[in-house]
């Protein structure tokens, strides 16, 4: 019943028997107990599940922010678990984009400078950085808001800046951790339209954690987590079933 | 990459102007204090040196009588002019040798009178005591030999007797002789001992001996040593020569005294330099405290900016980039503080020097050292907080509120 091979594309990410254990001995807590997951290029995946089901832990491991205790994580056929901290940073820098629930923009820093940040770490020359950041802001519909700081922007606008920051580097895959969690439903749908558009028009692979079925409905594949395991993994109803 | 790090650090400093100002305040004060202390202290040392130089730091004074002790005048055989001539002839490295005899005399012009010091000597005395002739001429050889009634007077005497009018060519009465003023000396001001160096009348030694003293004695021989020559060696040579000339047996003590102005000079400058060093050390402590202030604020800043660091790490900043950013921030802040401190110090030093009447001596060395030290403070006290920031776990850091 998996939807992983229906497009016939090269798998971007392959998880096999990923476990994550916090603490040791008696106090050991198993956050993930052997997760198998395959993500293809161009997919839009919604990850759902109750709190404590391990979906955030899995996202952190996928995003190379955390390491698994056991199992195999292959990103583009590279075994991530064998990479050093700096090599994982390099992976984040060149292939991954992040959007967080709390936006996580630098305060007292203009929208433009926020979007430029990942390009600075990439060493993009100033002029190119500037044009790319402006284009990314235009893509998320914030043309004319470049010099505003987060405090001067609404929540929806802040999340758009965060998305612009995530896609300005043209990543292979975009991880969104409850991107609409802090927004009202109108703003949420705008953000989802934006993510869907990026996925459809630019072919950016999107993995999104969400609580809301409304938001999950935008995805073309929905993965449910329960007690540290993948409970169900199926294509979204609008395509199959 | 350094350029990018600098850019990030500068943006961060600009984002928090108030915090940045507070951070560097300690460094500003520390740097300023050190530079002001050293500059003013240096000025004071220069002033003391100048005063001593105006007395003639390469001066030796040979006087009859044993060193120190009251009631030692008995048996003091005075010098003769021949002693001075012998010194000039036999001791090397001398600039001038002037036999000097002096006496307190009342000088009279018209209805004005002024008690002053009459010094019988020769032309070389004027140069040896760092004096110079403002107007007029030196004694001629024949005047010096024949004991002519001519004199060279200091500014104070001119002021007291002539009230500022031209005194050149006038005749003043010294005791019972009438003396023509052939020159006026350039003003020298007070000596560092507080005596008026312009209250002087100089006459040829032969004139003094014949008309004032009535004998051939010389009360003192003033010797000026060539620049760069050790006065100690010259001192020894003179002592040896005089012992022979005065027939002192090896078992006996000298019955004359050779005094070195450099002894006094080094003592005085030593005191000022010691004071400067002490005050600078106190100021340096405040610089250290300033550095701890930077570390304090940087540590607070790391905690306060935990989330920001998490964002940077998640976005793809390397540990060493975060480390470098915090380090560069600390160094930029502290060197900026150093620069401000230098500017404040220079302005204050010029102002203080004016008030204290001390010459302003720009000391490029201490300015450079203070600047480098402030930058070093940034590196040393910024490293620990920077390391703390770089070692943060991105997930933990992102969760931090």
Structure, explained:
The complex is a heterodimer of chains A (241) and B (401). Chain A has 241 residues and is of the alpha/beta class. Chain A has a single domain, classed as P-loop containing nucleotide triphosphate hydrolases (Rossmann fold). Chain A is built from seven helices and ten strands. In chain A, the strands form two sheets. In chain A, strands 6-7-8-3-9-10 form a six-stranded mixed β-sheet, with helices on both faces. A four-stranded antiparallel β-sheet of chain A has the order 2-1-4-5, with helices on one face. In chain A, helix 4 (126-139) packs across helix 5. Chain A is globular and about 55 Å long. By secondary structure, chain B is of the alpha+beta class. In chain B, the strands form two sheets. In chain B, strands 3-4-9-6-8-7 form a six-stranded mixed beta barrel. In chain B, strands 2-10 form a two-stranded antiparallel ribbon. In chain B, a hairpin with a 2-residue loop joins strand 3 (94-109) and strand 4 (112-121). The longest helix of chain B has 44 residues, at 261-304. Chain B starts with a helix and ends with a helix. The A-B interface holds A 60, 63, 65-66, 85-86, 89-90, 92-94, 96, 98, 100, 104-109, 113, 117-118, 120-123, 165 and B 1, 4, 7-8, 11, 15-16, 307-308, 310-319, 321, 394-395, 398.
């Amino acid at each position: 019943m998996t939807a992983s091979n229906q497009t016939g594309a090269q798998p971007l990410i392959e998880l096999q028997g990923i476990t994550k254990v916090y603490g040791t001995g008696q106090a050991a807590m198993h956050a993930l107990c052997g997760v198998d997951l395959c993500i293809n290029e161009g997919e839009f995946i919604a990850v759902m599940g109750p709190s404590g089901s391990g979906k955030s832990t899995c996202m952190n491991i996928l995003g190379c922010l955390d390491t698994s205790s056991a199992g195999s994580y292959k990103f583009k056929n590279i075994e991530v678990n064998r990479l050093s901290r700096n090599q994982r940073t390099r992976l984040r820098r060149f292939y991954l984009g992040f959007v967080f629930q709390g936006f996580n923009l630098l305060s007292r820093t203009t929208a433009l400078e926020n979007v430029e940040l990942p390009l600075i770490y990439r060493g993009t020359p100033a002029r190119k950085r500037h044009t790319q950041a402006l284009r990314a802001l235009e893509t998320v519909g914030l043309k004319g808001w470049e010099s505003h700081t987060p405090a001067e922007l609404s929540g929806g606008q802040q999340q758009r800046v965060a998305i612009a920051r995530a896609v300005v580097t043209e990543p292979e895959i975009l991880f969104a951790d409850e991107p609409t969690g802090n927004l009202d439903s109108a703003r949420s749908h705008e953000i989802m339209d934006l993510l869907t558009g990026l996925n459809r028009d630019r072919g950016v692979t999107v993995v999104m954690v969400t609580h809301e079925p409304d938001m999950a409905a935008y995805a073309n594949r929905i993965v449910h987590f329960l007690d540290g395991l993948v409970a169900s993994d199926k294509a979204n109803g609008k395509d199959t079933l | 990459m350094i350029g990018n790090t600098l850019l990030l650090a500068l943006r961060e400093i600009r984002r928090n102007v108030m915090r940045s100002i507070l951070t560097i305040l300690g460094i500003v004060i520390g740097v300023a204090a050190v530079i002001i202390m050293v500059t003013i202290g240096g000025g004071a040392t220069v002033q003391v040196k100048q005063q001593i130089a105006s007395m003639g730091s390469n001066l030796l004074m040979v006087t009859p009588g044993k060193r120190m002790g009251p009631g030692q005048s008995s048996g003091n055989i005075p010098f003769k002019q021949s002693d001075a001539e012998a010194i000039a002839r036999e001791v090397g490295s001398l600039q001038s040798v002037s036999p000097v005899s002096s006496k307190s005399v009342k000088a009279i012009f018209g209805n004005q009178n002024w008690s002053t010091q009459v010094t019988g000597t020769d032309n070389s005395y004027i140069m040896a005591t760092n004096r110079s002739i403002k107007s007029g001429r030196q004694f001629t050889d024949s005047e010096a030999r024949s004991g002519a009634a001519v004199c060279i007077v200091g500014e104070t005497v001119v002021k007291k007797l002539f009230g500022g009018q031209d005194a050149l060519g006038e005749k003043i009465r010294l005791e019972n002789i009438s003396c023509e003023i052939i020159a006026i000396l350039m003003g020298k001001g007070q000596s560092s001992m507080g005596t008026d160096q312009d209250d002087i009348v100089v006459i040829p030694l032969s004139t003094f001996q014949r008309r004032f003293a009535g004998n051939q004695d010389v009360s003192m021989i003033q010797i000026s040593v060539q620049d760069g020559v050790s006065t100690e060696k010259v001192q020894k040579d003179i002592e040896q020569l005089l012992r022979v000339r005065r027939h002192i047996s090896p078992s006996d003590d000298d019955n004359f005294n050779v005094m070195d102005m450099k002894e006094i000079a080094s003592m005085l400058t030593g005191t000022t330099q010691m004071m400067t060093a002490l005050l600078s050390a106190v100021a340096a402590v405040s610089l250290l405290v300033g550095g701890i202030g930077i570390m304090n604020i940087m540590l607070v800043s790391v905690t306060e900016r935990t989330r920001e660091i998490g964002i940077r790490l998640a976005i793809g900043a390397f540990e060493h980039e975060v480390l470098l950013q915090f380090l560069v921030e600390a160094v930029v802040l502290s060197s900026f503080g150093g620069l401000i401190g230098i500017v404040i110090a220079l302005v204050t030093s010029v102002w203080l020097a004016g008030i204290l009447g001390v010459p302003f001596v720009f000391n490029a060395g201490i300015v450079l050292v203070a600047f480098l030290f402030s930058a070093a403070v940034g590196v040393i006290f910024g490293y620990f907080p920077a390391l703390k920031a770089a070692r943060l776990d991105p997930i933990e850091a992102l969760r931090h509120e």
